[in-house]
């Protein structure tokens, strides 16, 4: 799944750089060709089949899902003209998330049944809660990493005790790696 996503993303970025519009199904097909070219046996891998089937179904359901969200927004606006906009967005977002979960389940179900002899419908409901929580955790993690790097850079610029510790650590690390190189070369007889 990661390889597929990386190939699709890189290809889309290159297409944008050369001012070409990218078609998601074409990108998906190219990713499958590249992966199968490097290892043709992947065609029999359930993970390969599940990721490509799920993405293909999500791409196919993309337009109907957008239309569903637009219809819902319009209906809510007509019925309740004074309804707060953020609640409308929240409601249509939840419906969209459920639709994506159902579409992913549709893409996965035949392959899951083929290889694992069962189909779990709990994923549809679980994704309504898990995906937003994971998204918040991911955003929080990125914020913490950026804050830590910022804190570290400020300490280094100020020349704090931490900066001296980091320099000493760097020196010790270089000395130990140099000593290991000398020891390895003495064992092999190289100088």
Describe the protein in words.
- By secondary structure, the chain is an all-alpha fold.
- The protein is built from six helices and no strands.
- The protein has helices at residues 2-17, 24-38, 46-79, 85-116, 122-158, 161-188.
- α3 (46-79) runs antiparallel to α4 (85-116) and α4 (85-116) crosses α5 (122-158).
- The model is unreliable at 182-186 (pLDDT under 50).
Total number of β-strand segments?
0
What would you report as the Rg, rounded to the nearest angstrom? 26 Å
Helices and strands, in N-to-C order? HHHHHH
Q: Helical percent range? A: over 70%
> How much of the residues is beta strand, in percent?
under 5%
Give the end-to-end Cα distance, rounded to a whole number of Å.
46 Å
Structural class: mainly alpha
Low-confidence stretches: 182-186
Largest sheet composition: none
Shape: extended
| Rounded mean pLDDT score | 79
| Count of DSSP H/I helices | 6
Q: Summarize this, please?
A:
The protein has 191 residues and is an all-alpha fold. It has helices at residues 2-17, 24-38, 46-79, 85-116, 122-158, 161-188.
């Amino acid at each position: 799944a990661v390889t597929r996503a990386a190939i699709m993303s890189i290809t889309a970025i290159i297409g944008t750089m050369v001012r070409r519009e990218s078609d998601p199904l074409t990108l998906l097909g190219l990713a499958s060709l590249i992966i199968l070219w490097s290892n043709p046996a992947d065609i029999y891998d359930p993970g390969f089949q599940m990721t490509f089937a799920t993405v293909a179904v999500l791409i196919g359901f993309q337009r109907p899902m957008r239309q569903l969200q637009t219809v819902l927004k319009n209906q809510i606006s007509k019925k309740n003209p004074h309804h707060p906009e953020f609640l409308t967005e929240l409601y249509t977002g939840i419906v969209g998330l459920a639709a994506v979960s159902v579409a992913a389940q549709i893409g996965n179900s035949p392959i899951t049944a083929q290889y694992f002899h069962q189909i779990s419908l709990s994923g549809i409901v679980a994704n309504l809660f898990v995906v937003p929580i994971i998204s918040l955790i991911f955003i929080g993690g990125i914020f913490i990493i950026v804050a830590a790097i910022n804190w570290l850079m400020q300490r280094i610029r100020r020349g704090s005790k931490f900066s001296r510790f980091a320099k000493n650590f760097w020196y010790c690390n270089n000395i130990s790696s140099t000593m290991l190189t000398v020891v390895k070369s003495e064992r092999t007889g190289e100088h």
